[in-house]
Amino acid sequence: MRALTWHGTHDVRVDTVDDPEIINSRDAILKITSTAICGSDLHLYDGVIPGVRPGDVLGHEFMGEVVETGRDSTLKKGQRVVVPFTISCGGCFHCKIQQYSACENSNPAEKQDMSATLYGHPMAGLFGYSHLTGGYSGGQAEYVRVPYSDVGPIVIPDHLEDEKVLFLSDILPTGWMGAENAEIQPDDTVAVWGCGPVGLFAIQSAIVMGASKVIAIDHYPHRLELAKQLGAEVIDFRKTDVREALMEMSGGIGCDAVIDAVGMEAHGFAIDNMIDIAKQKIGIGADRASALKQAILAVRPGGRVSIPGVYGGMTDKFPLGALMEKGLQVRSGQTHVQRYTKDLLEKIEDGTLDTTFLISHRLPLEEAPRGYKNFREEQDSWTKVVLKPGMEQEQAA
C-alpha cells in the first residue's frame, strides 16, 4: 500500500510499504477514506520529538471503512468509523476511570523504557507518533491496523460526511478538553494562545460552555479572522503588548482562565523564546514554552491554566514562583478522546459545533509532502489539510 513515511527533519515521503495485518483478535483493519495533518505532526516533521525512525508511517487523525476484523473486534465490515488517536485497552485502572490517554497496556512493554525514564511512567500508545508511544503505524496511508478496535472507534451514521466527523479523532476533543480543563464559568474571561486547529476548537468550545468573553492570541491575520468569526475578541501579539491588553480587556483583574494551545514550538521574538529556539536547534532543552509562560503571568490570582498544547521535554526559566504565589490551578494531558466522542458527535449532528470551517486544503495522499511543507511554512492560509487516499484516481477519472 501507499503511505506517508518519515525519513528525517523536513523529509517525509509517500512510499510503498507492507499492508497491515491482523495481529491480535481485537484488531481491525481500516481502508482510510480521510486523514488529516495535525499541528503536532509538525513537531515530528521539525525533528523535535525523539524516538521517530526512518520509514515510520505518520498520521493520527483518520477515519475509514472497516475491511477486516479479528474475532474479538466489535466492529463489522463495511462500517465507517473514526478512530481516536489514543490507543486504549479499556480494561486497565486508568481506562476504567476514563483516563484513556494514560492506558497502561497499549504501549508494548519493550517500548516503555524511554518514556518511563523521561516522565516517571510509560506513555500510552498513540498512532503514528514515534516509538515513545509504541511505534504504531499511523493513518496517513491507504490502510491501517487498529488495535483494541472494540474500545476506541466510533461508528458514524451514513448521513454524516467525513469532513464533519474526521476531527473527532483528535483536535475537536482536544480543544473541548482544553476548555473543560479551564473549568469555564458563565461570567469568565478566557484567553486562548494559538489559533491553530486546536486553539480554534478550544475557542469554539469555550463559547459553547458559556464564557462571557473569549480572547484569541496569534499573529496570523486569517487565523485571527477565523477566531473572530467564532465570536472571539483578538490580539495580534506582534502588534500589541499581550499582558497589558489582557489586563485592560479583563477590567484590570486578569483573565479567569487561560488556555495554551501552542505547545513546544512557540513563535515570536520575545527574548526568552529566541533563546529557547537556539537551544532547541542544538538539542539543549526540548520545549519553547514562551506561550505558556505568558499565560501563567497573564491569568488572575486564583485562576486556571489549561495546557492542551503538546510538550515533550524540559524548559528553562519557568515561572514557578508565579504559579505558586498566585495560587493557580493547572490541568493538562493528552486527550482522553474516547470520553468525549459520543457527546461531541451529538453536538455535530444537532449543529452546536461546526468542524469544517477551518479546512483550507484537500489533497491526494500522494501530495502529503507538499501538504506538510505548506502547513508549516504558510500557516496563515494553510489552516488545515485533509488528505484523501484514492483522490488521485478520482481526479484522473
Automatic annotation (TrEMBL):
InterPro entries: ADH-like_C, ADH-like_N, ADH_Zn_CS, GroES-like_sf, NAD(P)-bd_dom_sf. Gene3D superfamilies: Medium-chain alcohol dehydrogenases, catalytic domain (3.90.180.10), NAD(P)-binding Rossmann-like Domain (3.40.50.720). Keywords: Metal-binding, Oxidoreductase, Zinc. Its cofactor is Zn(2+). Residues 197-265 form the Alcohol dehydrogenase-like C-terminal domain. Residues 26-153 form the Alcohol dehydrogenase-like N-terminal domain. CDD domains: FDH_like_1. Coiled coil: none annotated. It comes from the Bacteria. This is Glutathione-dependent formaldehyde dehydrogenase. It holds the Pfam family ADH_N. Belongs to the zinc-containing alcohol dehydrogenase family.
